[in-house]
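Data deposition worksheet. Section B asks for the primary sequence of the deposited chain exactly as it was used as input, without tags or linkers unless they were present during the calculation. Section C holds the resulting structure in C-alpha cell form. Section D is free text for depositor observations; keep each observation to a single sentence. Incomplete worksheets are returned to the depositor.
Section A, Depositor: J.P.
Section B:
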Amino acid sequence: MGWAQNAPDYVARARALGPAIAAAADDTERGRELPAPLVSTLAANGLFRLLQPSALGGAELTPMQFAEVMEELAKWDASTAWCLGQGNGCGAAAAYLDPAVAREIFGPDDGIVAWGPPSGSAEAKKVPGGYRLTGSWSFASGSHNATWFGAPYLRARRRRCAAAAGRRRHDPAHAAVPKAKAVMTDIWKVLGLRGTGSDAYSVTDLFVADDHTRAARPHDPRAPSPAGFTASASATSTPRALPGSHSASPAPSMTALSRWPPRRPRAAAPSTLRHNNVVQSQVAQSEARLRSAAPFC
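Section C:
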C-alpha cells in the first residue's frame, strides 16, 4: 500500500536518520532515555505524528504504512523504535479528543504522550467541570521524553434505576495528565531496552477537566483517522519486534555477531565465539525464523 501522491516518504526519512539513531544508541542505553537532541530530530521529521490525523498536523498513515516505518527504525536501535512506536500509539488518541485539546497536547514540537497501565487502583471522583483523579501507573515507555501522560482509571457510572442506587458501578476511562503535574518513580532497572525509560508515575487528587477525559473504547473520532484507535495502537508492537532482534541491547544481535572483530580465543575453547560452529548454527536458524515470520506481519 503506497502513500498518497506528494506525501512524505516516512520510510525514507527513517532510513536517512538511521545512522544518527545508531550513533546515539550507546547514550540511549546509558542514560535510560532517548537523548534530547535525538528526540528533537525525530520530532522535527514528524516521526511522533505518524498516526495522528492530517487535520491536526499528523501523517495519518495506515497501519501497514506505519508498520513499514517502524520496521526500518527498529533496524537501527530497538529502544528508539519502541519509544516511537508507543508514542505514536498514544498519538492516535488525538482523533478522539476535542481538536482544541488535541492541539494543546500534541501541537507543540515536544508534544509526546506516554501511557502505562494502572499499578494499583486508579479512580476519579466527579466534581464540577471534571474529575479529581488519584492513581499510579507503571511501565510507561518513553516517559522521560514525554510531556503528557495517559492515565486509565475507573469512572463512576450513572445510575439508571432506583434498584441500582446502592451498587457501585464504574466504567473504564482515560485522562490526559500533564507530566509536570505527576510524580515520577524510577522502576525501569533492566538489562535490555534500558533506553525506553519505562518508569512509573502517579497523581493525587489532581483535577482533570471533562474535555481531557474519554471513554476507554471511543467510537466517535472527532477527526478523520485511517484506522480505529485500538487497531492503530495494536500496530505499534510487531513491526518493532522482528527487526529489533538485530539491534536489541546489550545482548549481541545476529547482524552484530557476524561483524564482531576477531578476539583472543578463550582458554577453554580453540576459537573465538563468532567462529564457533554451534553459535553459527543457532544464529543461522534464528535468522531463518526471523525472515520467515516477517512476511506475515
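Section D:
Residues 1-5, 228-232, 238-242, 248-252 have pLDDT under 50 and may be disordered.
The first strand starts at residue 113 and ends at 115.
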